[in-house]
Specification:
Elements: H1 30-44, E1 51-55, E2 70-73, H2 79-89, E3 94-100, H3 101-107, H4 109-117, E4 123-128, H5 163-170, E5 174-179, H6 183-195, E6 200-205, H7 217-220, E7 224-226, H8 238-245, E8 252-259, H9 266-269, H10 287-297
Parallel strand pairs: 1-2, 1-3, 3-4, 4-6, 5-6, 7-8
Antiparallel strand pairs: 5-8
Helix pairs in contact: 1-6, 3-4, 5-8
The structure holds thiamine diphosphate and iron/sulfur cluster (SF4).
């Protein structure tokens, strides 16, 4: 009798569905980002146990609870250093970092800069709604001048940070921008970002439908223009990416601004990791080596 041998079943969207349903407001942009991440993981066929999703604090930072991967919900602004530790402990894992503009560019701004210059092999997705959602609507580092919020009732007087330009200046090796209403385009960017070896950053317009009445889906829709639609645009050209990064107004570029593949990621550059991930090694140091090391320091 012939035997039928079945290979493993391909991963499907349902396999990445979290055990808890998102409690985001109906219509929140973050739903689109969650679906786009799940779609990218399906396309790449990465098994759940090889993915870790790490966040800080915020509505968007609740993300790891809503996806079936390993996950850590850490402290406000501290997702990137935790993710760096995870990646360096086991560099064979796919490490995703998810959070908001307040979390990433405000309290976490310092870590943002250093993770990029180190070229840690992480995929960082910021759900940029230009406001603090979880704390009920205060200005954030990406709020526009003049925006009226709970913390700026007479209008914001501070200029916003430019996330794309900042990422380029700090040395990120993959820099992109997406829009949560265009899931197909966004999941394509996320897929490329995961495949990229090194620090990949995607700033995603993910409107807060409850507290940001200025930068809504309707506001973005006619303005976003895909860089891919311009055949002359070269995403290997850092200066061209910088020029595009500061455009804001009637035309706002989305897509892949920049990628370079000639720099080693931190795990590739670190000689200690050349024999494989730290997690696979004995969890003790040979006492003779430890003694010699201490004596050298004395
Ligand atoms: C150390 C610390 N400071 C402040 C807070 C309060 N807090 C929680 S979330 C948040 C900002 C949320 O905005 P954002 O990161 O943009 O995420 P969103 O909720 O908009 O997705 C703040 C200020 C905190 N939890 N911990
Ligand atoms: S408050 Fe804003 S960011 Fe938070 S879940 Fe609601 S719509 Fe989304």
């Amino acid at each position: 009798m012939a035997t039928i041998t079945e290979g493993p079943r391909p991963m499907a969207m349902a396999d990445y569905k979290g055990r808890v349903d998102p409690d985001w407001c109906p219509g929140c942009g973050d739903y689109g980002v969650l679906a786009a991440v799940q779609k990218a993981l399906v396309e790449l066929q990465i098994p759940n146990h090889q993915v870790v999703t790490i966040s800080g604090i915020g509505c968007s930072s609740n993300f790891p609870g809503f996806i079936e991967t390993y996950g850590m919900h850490t402290l406000h602004g501290r997702a990137l250093p935790v993710a760096t530790g995870v990646k360096m402990a086991n560099h064979e894992l796919t490490v995703l970092v998810t959070g908001g503009d307040g979390d990433g560019f405000g309290i976490g701004g310092n870590h943002f800069a250093h993770a990029m210059r180190r070229n840690v092999d992480l995929t960082y997705i910021v759900m940029d709604n230009q406001i603090y959602g979880l704390t009920t609507g205060q200005t954030s580092p990406t709020s526009q001048i003049g925006m009226k919020t709970k913390s700026t009732p007479f209008g914001n007087v501070e200029g916003p940070i430019h996330p794309i330009a900042s990422a380029l200046a700090c040395g990120a090796t993959f820099v992109a921008r997406g829009f949560s209403a265009d899931q197909k385009h966004l999941s394509g960017l996320i897929r490329q970002a995961i495949e990229h070896k090194g620090f990949s950053f995607i700033d995603v317009f993910s409107p807060c439908v409850t507290y940001n009445k200025d930068n809504t889906f309707q506001w973005f829709r006619p303005r976003v223009k895909k860089l891919e639609d311009d055949p002359a645009y070269d995403s290997g050209d850092w200066l061209a990416a910088m020029e595009k990064s500061i455009l804001w107004g009637e035309e706002i570029p989305i897509g892949k601004f920049f990628e370079r593949t000639d720099l080693p990621s931190l795990d590739e550059a670190e000689p200690v990791l050349k024999d494989g991930p730290m997690v696979g090694r004995p969890d003790h140091i040979d006492p003779a080596i430890a003694r010699a090391f201490i004596e050298e320091l004395m």
